[in-house]
Amino acid sequence: MGLVLSLTLVANSPMTQSALAQPGKPPTTTTPEARTQAARAELMAAVSAARGEGKLLIVTYSNSPSNKAANQRALSSGPTRAFIARHALVADVTDVGLIRELTNDKGPALSDKPGGDPLVFLDGKLMALNQAATEVTNPPAKAVAGSFALAARLDWSVRRLQSAKAHAAFVVRYDQRDAAANAALTTLHNTDGQKVPAFDPAPDSKPLDVLDQARAAIKAKKLEAAAGMYTWLWERGPSADASFEPALLSVVAPEMFLLAGASPAAKDRFIALRNLAGESLLTRDGVALHRYLILCRIVEDEIFNLTFLDDALNQPASALSIPPADRRTAELLLRHCHFNDPVKGVAEPGALIAGLRSRLDELRRDAQEPAKAAEADAARAARVKAQAPLVAYVSWLSDVELARRYAYALKAGPEGGQKLLTKAGLAGAKSGDAGALSLAQQAMLATTCKALGVTAP
Fold first, then answer.
1. What is the spatial distance between Cα 33 and Cα 272, in angstroms, rounded to a whole number?
2. Number of folded domains that form the chain
3. Among 138, 164, 180, residue at a domain's last position
4. Angstrom distance (rounded) from CA 355 to CA 350
5. Same domain membership, residue 70 and residue 154
6. Is residue 325 included in any domain, yes or no?
7. Which of 144, 159, 180 represents a domain boundary (last residue)?
8. Is pTM beyond 0.90 here?
9. What is the rounded distance in angstroms from the CA atom of residue 56 to the CA atom of residue 169?
10. 3-class SS of residue 28
């Protein structure tokens, strides 16, 4: 994780930062002019450090204790901290005059009320912060920890610069840092909590076997022990068995939700799991964001994030400010990021699978087509690169939706599964044939059916 430079630049405090930084020496009272000069020097040092590291400088304005507390809350969510750790330094300023100097008095009017946006500087110059759904980007206290709104707006702002030649070097470094920020496998499952015991089974443990153990623990009223097992399923299930992902998101997730409602200790554990996921979240990664929002649903803390996405997509003033690939990802997230029965009340659940597969084919064809005569190769390459996370998400989502819809359709009736596959265009006889299920898809269908307790034909 990158260095976060957090400065408090106080022009009118009774002592300068340099006085505070000298252990054993009495504080030195200086004139207001000297304090302002010291604060200005520190702010310029922050600008220089951000420029040298190829990072943004995020400046908050704290002219009162309530503003300072609000600014700290705004930057405290896991996704926002993850963004800052990779891409930004932070400075807190109390003297509005210094901010006016930094913006050449052309910056936005700064509010004296808590909850305003921070200022964002790139290469020492004020950068426009994406204004998508700004009225829902200041979350209530209970939703702060899980909010990804500010992190998404910061990322959208940067990626809107991708076609600007003046910022080409910055964007390259930005993308490199994101590419290197692989989410680390968390190990909460083998950590003893206050009430939830560690659960660390044998390395060759099968997720479906652990799921059976968790369900048995619930029946035996050992809810905290079950919470540890579900933690393992979330952290290790898909890596232990790649076919387990759809079952995790559609069968295991609602069981975790019910367990969180029955056991405060389990809910606290799942909140900790969500918070850990936020600490490494890339908001442009649709797969990671989908899994993150499912965790938010499990702990009943999804409303703010979903409202933000919905407003960002539907407000005319903000919808066009979102990069196109992110806009399409958000539309899919709002439609699919739940663990309800996906076929109940749906006339043709297989039609959605066909639509996702068609969209995936279209995206892949677009990536493979040669550049058009009127389109520069560089511009086309940038567009294809920007769409890559969307392609990965649609591919992943189509498999997840196929497996869970098939299992639930089969549960609703013996003919439901085959009908869904036919409507989805996946009724081929042999693996490898056009319109046939791949071996990986067959494994996902079988595993999801077993987790749901239905027998696949």
1. 47
2. 2
3. 180
4. 9
5. yes
6. yes
7. 180
8. no
9. 13
10. coil
The answer to whether 266 and 260 are in contact (CB under 8 A) is yes
46 contacts 91 by C-beta, under 8 angstroms:
yes
- Dihedral sign, CA of 245, 250, 256, 259? negative
Q: How many CB atoms lie within 10 A of CB 284?
A: 22
Q: 126 and 172: one domain?
A: yes
Does some domain include residue 309? yes
List the one residue out of 361, 371, 277, 333 whose CA is nearest residue 78: 277
Helices (H), 7-53: 17-20, 32-53
Give CA torsion, residues 373, 375, 379, 382, to 10 deg.
-70
Name the residue range of residue 88's domain.
Answer: 6-180
Residue 200 and residue 172 share a domain: no
Question: pLDDT tens digits, residue range 131-141?
Answer: 887 666 667 77
In a domain, 1, yes or no: no
Please report, as a single letter, which amino acid is at residue 444. Answer: M
CA–CA dist 85, 4 (Å, integer): 6
Asked whether residue 71 falls in the same domain as residue 212, the answer is no
Asked whether residue 457 is domain-assigned, the answer is no
What would the pLDDT profile of 331-370 be if each residue is shown by its tens digit?
A: 999 999 999 999 988 888 899 899 999 988 988 887 776 6
Long-range CB contacts (within 8 A, 24+) of 331-335: 332/286, 332/393, 332/394, 332/397, 333/286, 333/289, 333/290, 333/293, 333/309, 334/306, 334/309, 334/310
